[in-house]
Q: What sequence folds into this?
């Protein structure tokens, strides 16, 4: 029992060392606002839940989970496939058929614009999380949306870095983007740490550049730059012994987590035309979207709530006070 408790302490230390609480809570809040519930495949582990795990629960989990039918076996190298397959069939029993999963109704997404504040008692500068919704990764329309998001936020060629007639400059700031692939839709999490005095200027800048897509659609150079970026990240580096297996591993993990793995390959990029990108951006940020009358995107501001509210003059927010200690 002592070793079991010690292992939980070591796990929590490792877990916390690479954990971004602010992003996790912002992500869950965005999902709740978009889908109307707090279901999220990654889960949210707190210390109390870890302390409540006992030996019987751990043993049951291990016996139920670590089984041949739950494993991914990848064999790479110079081999005789018939001999290897025979050995596998001899030594590993065939997996039992999985029970049919009940058909789940797709999540109804409400992408209307809202701005939230998460109050955190910290001396660190505030962080802005801007969430946008796109089709699921397996859909043909996903990559056009991704190209549009890159055209806006991608460093260093994104529009927010080259905005004219705006007193706020992005010099010294860089927006990072994390793409969360869910079964029913994709979330683009664009985030940046700013000074308090720059919060509202940054939000107004992003909103201004989004609106400009209605009058100045994605240009061909922006389209090619974004496409080259995604092609470069999807190419297999044959010099690395493990990189060509990553797409197989990602696909397996996505199935286990009930997420959608993005399709990659030259044929996918050949299918994405400039016209498709223009149509997707028109629906997301352009004239067609303007006709629907409501801005999109969930914005979460994390930091000292008083300083954030003092820096916001024209934005309506919903203040939420959460302890991240």
A:
């Amino acid at each position: 029992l002592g070793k079991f408790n010690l292992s939980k302490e070591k796990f929590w230390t490792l877990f916390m060392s690479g954990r971004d609480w602010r992003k996790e809570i912002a992500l869950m809040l965005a999902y709740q606002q978009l889908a109307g519930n707090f279901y999220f495949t990654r889960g949210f582990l707190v210390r109390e839940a870890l302390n409540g795990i006992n030996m019987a629960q751990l043993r049951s989990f291990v016996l139920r989970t670590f089984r041949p039918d739950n494993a991914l076996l990848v064999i790479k190298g110079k081999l005789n496939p018939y001999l290897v397959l025979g050995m596998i069939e001899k030594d590993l029993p065939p997996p039992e058929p999985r029970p049919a999963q009940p058909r789940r109704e797709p999540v109804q997404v409400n992408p209307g614009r809202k701005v939230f504040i998460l109050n955190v008692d910290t001396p660190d500068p505030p962080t802005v999380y801007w969430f946008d919704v796109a089709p699921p990764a397996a859909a043909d329309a996903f990559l056009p949306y991704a190209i549009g998001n890159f055209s806006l936020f991608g460093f260093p060629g994104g529009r927010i870095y080259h905005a004219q007639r705006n007193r706020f400059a992005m010099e010294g700031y860089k927006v990072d983007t994390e793409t969360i692939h869910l079964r029913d839709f994709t979330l683009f999490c664009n985030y940046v740490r700013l000074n308090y005095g720059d919060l509202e200027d940054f939000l107004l800048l992003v909103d201004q550049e989004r609106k400009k897509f209605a009058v100045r659609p994605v240009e061909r150079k922006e389209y090619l730059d974004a496409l080259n970026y995604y092609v470069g990240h999807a190419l297999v580096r044959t010099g690395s012994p493990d990189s060509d297996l990553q797409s197989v591993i990602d696909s397996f993990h996505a199935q286990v987590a009930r997420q959608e793995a993005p399709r990659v390959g030259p044929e996918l990029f050949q299918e994405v035309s400039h016209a498709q990108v223009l149509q997707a951006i028109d629906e997301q940020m352009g004239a067609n979207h303007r006709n629907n009358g409501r801005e999109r995107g969930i914005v979460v501001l994390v930091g000292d709530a008083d300083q954030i509210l003092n820096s916001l003059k024209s934005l309506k927010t919903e203040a939420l006070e959460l302890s991240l200690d």
Notes: The chain has a mean pLDDT of 76.
